[in-house]
């Protein structure tokens, strides 16, 4: 009764192949619903609508304009202050300082990291400086900045530069360090040296880290700016979005306070989902360096 | 410009294109100074397919990197057309083993054009034409506008070869270019490389640890012994139109195998 452990030798066989033209369905088109739900922006819009609905319901339940004005009142205040030109003017003031500080911070970070990868002393300098200054809250420098530069927009820009420079430099540098030896050798093989080597090989190869650094730097800058304006605005009597918030709080115009916060959120969403996303899709996603 | 290699047979060609004489290569690790090769000398003549063969640890890749100009010999000299090799340059294009040697931010075509432009070899239309010409030679015309991450390993290596050959370098340096490929693709790539050679008669140094690959691809084979790398022998490979080629290949394979493992007890024949 014992079965043989080894299977009998089986005959060889040849497969019969069907011409591709005779296949039934090789690709099935996605259904309309699947196509719609595959749109990232649409899923995000749905999330935003749900959040707004929760806010509206909660605001009505609390029924106290001074604590939580409902979403609809916030929107009304938002459009009203756009219509009278106050909000756009404040946003413009903020954006001007922000872009100056951000650009300067990124520029300094670029200089510092280029120095760090080309010389050993530069590397030590960058490591020491980032270890010292990265943990230092930018807002803590504001009193000093006011003392040094006076009640001028440059005081704000100085604080912004501080908040952007270190995270961007740190990320860019770690991106440069992580560039694969093969790619470095390829660049050298082409005879690239110095600036050409940095701009044509290192920067694109390290772009995922650089972009992450730029995003973090942007978020830090935006936060620092609003926080600084809350303080700075009081002393100078004018200013941007942060000052808009303080001003309206002082007169207990709470829907306008919320409208100010709403604007901060809107700008944040726009920069993240439109500007950075477009850059990402045109670069690292297309290159297969991010999924 | 000292001529060396008096002990090598005169093969009746012109002057050597590349002469490596008495090269000792050392590199430092955290707590050791490692000697990769010790007084290695050889000469490569125009249109030779020169294979450097040896087990791992014989410093063959280090040797190739030194020819590429990435490291300087502690002793001896490397001369290309009489001029000492000091730094990497586009006259010695390298093809690496790793698939990540292509620039991911450039399409296939841009990858091939880039060195032509950045080294100032060609510009504009001429560079593009040259690039497309070599992309066609490696049968990738259909993929000229795709990004490297969408290609298979074999296709990436073909792009790397096209990129190196488009520069029409004095010498092509290949560092185990097919080692990371599967056996079927590797065999196909070897044949394609030989076809390319038939077309353009380029000079190359090809580093490998596979005896079969060395015999198939090379016209001349340098055998290195390990720890540190020293010349064991320099052999002629089997001619591609030789009668009873398969037998000759097997015989040479056995011979090389015996030479490489002369001091060990291993006797089986490697079938890489």
Structure keywords:
heterodimer; A: 291 residues; mainly alpha; MetI-like fold; B: 272 residues; alpha/beta; Rossmann fold; 2 domains; 6-stranded mixed beta sheet; 4-stranded antiparallel beta sheet; disordered N terminus; disordered C terminus
Short summary:
The complex is a heterodimer of chains A (291) and B (272). With 291 residues, chain A is an all-alpha fold. Chain A has helices spanning 32-37, 40-62, 71-83, 86-118, 120-133, 142-149, 153-177, 181-189, 194-205, 207-236, 241-250, 254-285.
Structure write-up:
The complex is a heterodimer of chains A (291) and B (272). Chain A has a domain at 85-285: MetI-like (MetI-like fold, Orthogonal Bundle). Chain A is 74% helix and 0% strand. Chain A is mainly α and 291 residues long. Chain A contains twelve helices and no strands. The model of chain A has no long low-confidence stretch (mean pLDDT 86). Chain B is an alpha/beta fold and 272 residues long. Chain B has two domains: 1-91 and 174-264, 3-Layer(aba) Sandwich (Rossmann fold), CATH 3.40.50.300; 103-168, no CATH class. Chain B contains seven helices and ten strands. Chain B has helices at 60-68, 108-118, 124-137, 153-166, 183-200, 211-217, 245-260; strands at 18-28, 33-44, 49-53, 75-80, 83-84, 92-95, 171-175, 204-208, 220-225, 230-236. A six-stranded mixed beta sheet of chain B has the order 6-7-8-3-9-10, with helices on both faces. In chain B, strand 7, helix 5 and strand 8 (204-208) form a beta-alpha-beta unit. In chain B, helix 2 (108-118) packs parallel to helix 4 (153-166). Chains A and B meet through helix 8 and helix 9 of A and strand 6 and helix 2 of B.
For the biggest sheet of chain A, the summary is: none
Count of structural domains of chain B: 2
The mean pLDDT of chain B is: 82
| String of helices and strands of chain B | EEEHEEEHHHEHEHEEH
Order of helices and strands of chain A: HHHHHHHHHHHH
Class of secondary structure makeup of chain B? alpha/beta
Unreliable stretches of chain A (pLDDT < 50, length at least 5) are none
Main interface by residue count: A-B, 21 and 24 residues
Helical amount among residues of chain B, as a percent range?
A: 25-40%
Q: Order of strands side by side in the largest beta sheet of chain B?
A: 6-7-8-3-9-10
Radius of gyration of chain A: 28 Å
